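Progress against Task 2.4 (sequence-to-structure conversion) is shown through the following example record, which the project officer requested during the mid-term review.
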Amino acid sequence: MGQRKIRVGELVLRQLSEMLHSRWRAESVSITLTEVDISPDLRKARVYYSVIGGREAAAKAGKLLMSLRGELRRMLGKEVVLKYTPELQFVYDPSVERGMHLLSVMDEIAASEQNGGGETGCGYSDCDGAQHAGNQEEI
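Structure tokens generated for the chain above:
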């Protein structure tokens, strides 16, 4: 059942994304459907989405998806042949936002190492580099 659950989830994700971005193109331009988690009986689907923008954009996307939930389910039932068309539940996925934050932190660290913290190579501001002198290999 596990493999079928994964395949059905991927199929539902692909179909929902295609339907959303073809029919409601202007409203869904900043929405990305990231994952679909299907219940073991295939009757419920938790659809994770991320949004380009801030919290206001995420709230607006959530309202849009919840208002389209019934119509998306009906369209999904016509496109995907399953015994039961899963009930859709949309959940905001902050992983893209966390990833962008992590990348910006890494960029800040790299910039600070280039501007003065990078002479020693260890990243500690109180390090004078003396303890690293014997560890240097000749190239």
